[in-house]
Amino acid sequence: MHIPMQVDYGVRALVDLAANGGEGPVRATDISKRQGIPEPYLVQVLHSLRKRGLTTTQRGPLGGHSLALEPSDISMGMVMEYLGGTQTMVGCLDEQGDCTQSSACGQRSVWLEVEMAMQAVLNSKSIADLVERDRLTENGAELAVRP
Known about the structure:
The protein is mainly α.
């Protein structure tokens, strides 16, 4: 599976906003430096997130970007849907109905199951969860990976 760079940058920007936005709007320049995201690309990502209602923008010398929702209300699945589009793992999952390659395709149901499991994991992880994971990792805690 391929995660589009725009999704990766979007998640990192949202986590940064959640972690650093407690005292007001956060400048794109600061997010760019902390996250290692090229600023021109980050500005495009932040614009897309604002259009989808996940962030707000305040202009002016004290302006910047803020979360429009609580971090716990923004899932990775939302970011994937909003920034990554609806591209499926395998082309046949885009099409409704039976496999066009074979009259008896057992793979399609397996790929669909994998995709549904992936979507369930992404929908179960919020930006707040990622902020907490970052905090634990910074403090030297090891995170258990559950299958």
